[in-house]
Write a structure and sequence with these properties.
The structure is a homodimer of 665-residue chains.
Chain A lengths: L2 H21 L5 H17 L14 E4 L5 H10 L6 H5 L29 H20 L11 E6 H5 L1 H13 L4 E7 L2 E2 L2 E2 L8 H7 L3 E5 L5 H13 L5 E6 L21 H10 L12 H31 L1 H11 L21 E2 H13 L5 E5 L3 H4 L18 E3 L4 H14 L3 E7 L7 H10 L4 E5 L17 H6 L5 E3 L4 H13 L4 E4 L4 E2 L9 H7 L2 E4 L7 E5 L3 H15 L3 E5 L3 H5 L3 H7 L7 E4 L8 H4 L4 E3 L10 H7 L4 H14 L1
Parallel strand pairs in A: 1-2, 2-3, 3-7, 6-7, 9-10, 9-11, 11-12, 12-14, 13-14, 17-18, 17-19, 19-20
Antiparallel strand pairs in A: 4-5, 8-15, 16-18
């Protein structure tokens, strides 16, 4: 190691150690061991511009081992991002820019929120995928407008998580050569030696996935790391995993032990470590001037790179103004004028139509005007109706093919969709059956936490899917999705509500789940109902009675038609019923009180909710005096119509319950 | 293929085809392709007793590719299980024993509920693990009381799911030689050729995990399958994957296409297929007498095997009555007398204690009297406090070691715990942070659906965990768990409630989640409060006021102490407040109305719930007039006490909100 390199590496190491020490909590072990590889990557390879963390053509760096956040914050500070040293001194404190795990949107230069293991690994695959797609769409001979690499530091924990296996297999299948991961192979996990649980041959496993696997025997060998990174960059056809043998807590008294992982070294061990490295014990947060000057060169390099790229883009704009404009729009995440002009208007005369089918039509109608709309399904495209017709299979057909075949990998699909959204320039979607949203809870949560634009399509949304039985019939999933903060859930009632829900989804700045039927449902007359406005508000009066209602029927999705049927009968029986369609709790919750009051007047306490899902949470809308016709146990294997009947989703049952309520009120 | 063998294979094939055809839905493709391997396994290898599906020493068979259920039902019927042909004719109909996907507890001989892909694969690992543990504990020289193998048929979909990667890696690490999987390698998934998404080298991948990998080039080559199964059984040190090249929809006009996967062949294609195989087109559900007679020999073999084993057990009982009795008790899932005698009683003088720590003490106190209690954590044992002290590391230390190191594999942990529970004879537990319960939603759901005895320990249960930040702080997880049908959730308030919760968990016949704090909380005085009875009822009056309460404070877990603190202050301020501790919504829901009314009288409408989690669902308990102090957004990285304060979890805020409510009432 050159003296200056060593100085820089140790500066990173001790900024991290001191940050953890000052916070009184955190993870010093990984920064001590992984600082050299991170330094080489950031100093010699990573093309980024600290002055402009949003430069579209920057390389992406993900710290998938998010617990080592102090390492990332040290790098960001030292290379000149807007992250003052004072923020490192406030590591893990309320309101600081240096939370315990890196948070996207919170700290400049943090490309992804990490910490839940495996997520960063899989999001990187999404970024590399978006990069390739964008490059195919926009690059022209002599104009490599989109030309960057996705790097990550990953841990044994990341590799143990199934989501990384799923993502790695797909990355290998697609040959994502612009994906380069450094594996911090330190042989230690929280419970002790990794051998306790993890004796697999990582090299062979990743070779099996179609990756190039490289090895660096000594994590302190900067030239070794550099050589591996060069070899990784030279292989354009395969993703690369560089296995770097490191030592957790390197140089500290806790080296190579689990004790170095998740707690401060303590003042004494910290002192001993600094002395071993010939580092001044005092003051803490010490940054030698030479190290600062060297690492800060990133600013100048970044300015130069971005400047050169700006010139390239200027020439590109002259040559291909159409493409340049589209590129600009996409990376800014803006929608083109008339983006929704092709969305169909469905008519009751079209006959009954599953909302999944309507969704497929809307999606395809959107696809031409929104070339950034790309996505696919976890091996259920024919069922989720998410194929973009005529746009080819990504990785197989011509350039810019937009259908992604995720395979039976819901979890990775979620994380890859997140990664594509983080990369920017695309509007990604992923689809599976609603019940299998359970497989992708961690990325759904992260999508909400990061606030990315991503659309999740969940079909086969109730016991009405029928014969596949309880393993495939969602019950508690709707409630579980609704419980996630900052996450939009829409369950449209028909084709026109589905179209409106897609409008909401495309315009949304937060992740959205569209919950759709397998079975056919009637089409609501768009001339008779204010559907689009109603969906935007989350709930609206679909069918009104004369005078004050005796009872309000609140329904979502396919059950709206049941409520309408019941109302018809109640009318005949002289019970005044209002029908409220409520495709989205969260949108409705956001409405002003007056709007909500108009739909659900507080003086009408007889309210009956009808939804083929767990009633969990419905009390919020029906109140103490109300009731819910829901699904209070698991489903059953039988034809969907029979299931609905057996579980009480019949006009007669709704009428009976509604009348009882109306009488009681 | 011998004529008789061929006849049997085709009998299986067409029973499945006809069942799907009659149901008008289902999956004929896999049964057509995989019938030969399944036949060889069941006819020549599987040691089972159709007359006694619960014989403890039977080999286990899992159809991880659960969509091929008709194949399994055909085998169960033909080999003599209590599954009449009429049930096959009612495939996928309401109330039949032949649901769309196999359901444990519903159909004799079905060892696990499958359908959600990857779950069967991972549950099999749990079964093999339980078998080995039990063999170590009970077998003695000359007495191989526990001596069986776990088999499964797995699909490409199973192998794509991350959970199977996690489970396979752990199975390899532990060298589970009694685990043998047949991989139905048919090159087709729902979206088309598996090459679209799955080009990995499965052989190399599984070799990397430490498995023996065998290949059968032609799935119709019965001798090839048999030879591979023999080789698999001979390798006692490694699990085996047998890659069997098959053709989906074999022999049908839809062979080798995705169209053969998920829908009936249709009458015409069905006829053509039968003709190609020289099978009578009519009648359907045809079973040639020779085939029936041959396959039915399983009954006689089974009776003989179980008889021999019964003799072995009788001799064992004479030799080792103590062990025999314990074995008998464990496989029957009964608890020994005095099983809970060592559970500690905590005293307020012990000082504040995190409920995770109390749980660790209780768990260890239980471990001696409950030798069937085995489990571990997804690499968080030191944090979840789930190490059984003195009981060694399973797979590494001496026989009967009980601590399982699952690695950072929450999803597989959940499925493996399920598999161990299904195997029987053990009471398994798995632990991680509450937020990471998201990684294991599918097995949690399956645990509930199957009704297995399994205990899930989720610690670090709120924003109070502090500095690790929002990625690690659960918010919506409690609501999401509570929404699962047939799943028990307990969030105890202190060490004594934790002990009571453990009693509930050990006695429960359904899966239980214990939700525990990271931070210390005071110990409630067990002499002053009826804690054990209260926890069993789900909610109870912890602190009473004189006369009718002005307000009821309802809290769970750590927030109970906040409620108690607020009550003290409210007392001084002249507001009569009752404090209800509510560790379990579901237990309370099951109480008779009078019990619930005594705790939450309907005429006290001023109710304030306090829980550091999403308020989702609380309206059920606080009513229209009540309020909730909850967490309505994601958490933050800061010391836990600061988080609590910033999010409103202070005595003053509770007092203020309670007074406002009391005044309003």
């Amino acid at each position: 190691m050159r003296d200056l390199d060593e100085l820089c590496v140790n500066t990173i190491r001790f900024l991290a150690v001191d940050a953890v020490e000052k916070a009184g909590s955190g993870h010093p072990g990984t920064p001590l061991g992984a600082a050299p590889m991170a330094y080489v990557l950031w100093d010699r390879f990573l093309r980024h511009d600290p002055a402009d963390p949003n430069w579209p053509n920057r390389d992406r760096f993900i710290l998938s081992a998010g617990h080592a956040s102090a390492l990332l914050y040290a790098l960001l500070h030292l290379t000149g991002y807007d992250l003052p040293l004072d923020e490192l001194k406030r590591f893990r404190q309320w309101g600081s820019k240096t939370p315990g795990h890196p948070e996207y949107g919170h700290t400049p230069g943090v490309e992804a929120t990490t910490g839940p293991l495996g997520q960063g690994f899989a999001m990187g695959v999404g970024m590399a995928l978006a990069e390739r797609f964008h490059a195919q769409c926009f690059n022209r001979p002599g104009f490599p407008l989109v030309d960057h690499t996705t790097y990550a530091v990953v841990s044994d924990g990341d590799l143990m998580e199934g989501v990384s296996s799923e993502a790695a297999s797909l990355a290998g299948t697609l040959g994502l050569g612009r994906l380069i991961y450094l594996y911090d192979d330190n042989h230690i996990s929280i419970e002790g030696e990794t051998d306790l649980a993890f004796t697999e041959d990582v090299r062979r496993r990743f070779e099996a996935y179609g990756w190039q696997v490289l090895r660096v025997a000594d994590g302190n060998d900067l030239e070794g790391v550099a050589a591996a990174l060069r070899a990784a960059r030279e292989d354009a056809a395969r993703p690369s995993l560089i296995i770097v043998r490191t030592h957790i807590g390197y140089g500290s008294p806790k080296e190579d032990t689990a004790a170095a992982h998740g707690e401060p070294l303590g003042p004494e061990a910290s002192r001993v470590t600094k002395e071993r490295f010939g580092w001044p014990v005092e003051p803490d947060f010490h940054i030698p001037e030479q190290a600062r000057a060297h690492l800060r060169k990133a600013v100048e390099r970044g300015r130069r790179w971005e400047g050169e790229w700006g010139e390239l883009r200027a020439r590109y704009r002259e040559e291909r103004p159409d493409l340049a404009e589209c590129f600009q729009r996409q990376v800014q995440g803006e929608l083109p004028d008339g983006w929704d002009a092709e969305i169909p208007r469905f008519s009751p005369e079209d006959g009954p139509m599953a909302t999944r089918s309507a969704s497929g039509k809307v999606l395809n109608a959107l696809s031409e005007r929104l070339p950034e709309l790309i996505g696919g399904s976890a091996d259920l495209a024919p069922s989720t109706k998410t194929l973009l017709l005529g746009y080819g299979d990504l990785g197989f057909d011509s350039d810019c093919a937009r259908n992604i075949h995720f395979g039976v990998r819901e979890h990775a699909m979620g994380a890859i969709v997140n990664g594509m959204a983080l990369h920017g320039g695309v509007l990604p979607y992923g689809a599976t059956f609603l019940v299998f949203s359970d497989y992708m809870r961690p990325p759904l949560r992260l999508a909400a936490l990061m606030g990315v634009r991503a659309i999740f399509i969940f079909t086969h949304d109730s016991i009405a899917l029928g014969e596949d039985g309880p393993t495939h019939q969602p019950v508690e999933q709707l409630a579980s999705l609704r419980a996630i903060p900052d996450f939009r859930v829409l369950r449209p009632a028909d084709a026109n509500e589905t179209a409106a829900a897609w409008r909401v989804a495309v315009e949304s700045r937060k992740p959205v789940a569209l919950v759709l039927t397998r079975q056919k449902v009637p089409v609501l007359d768009p001339d008779a109902y204010a559907i689009e406005d109603g969906v935007r508000k989350g709930a609206y009066v679909l069918a009104e009675c004369e005078g004050k209602p005796d009872v309000i029927l609140i329904a979502t999705g396919s059950e709206v038609h049941l409520a309408l049927g019941a109302k018809e009968k109640l009318d005949r029986l002289g019970t005044r019923a209002r029908v409220v369609s409520m495709p989205s709790w969260d949108l409705f919750e956001e409405q002003p009180r007056e709007v909500r009051e108009r739909v659900l007047p507080s003086d009408v306490r007889a309210r009956l909710a009808v939804e083929a899902a767990a009633p969990f949470g419905w009390r919020r809308w029906v109140g103490d005096a109300g009731e819910v016709i829901g699904v209070e146990r698991f489903g059953a294997s039988a034809p969907g119509t029979e299931n609905l009947r057996r579980y009480g989703f019949t006009v007669d049952n709704v009428v009976e319950r509604a009348q009882a309520l109306a009488k009681g009120s």
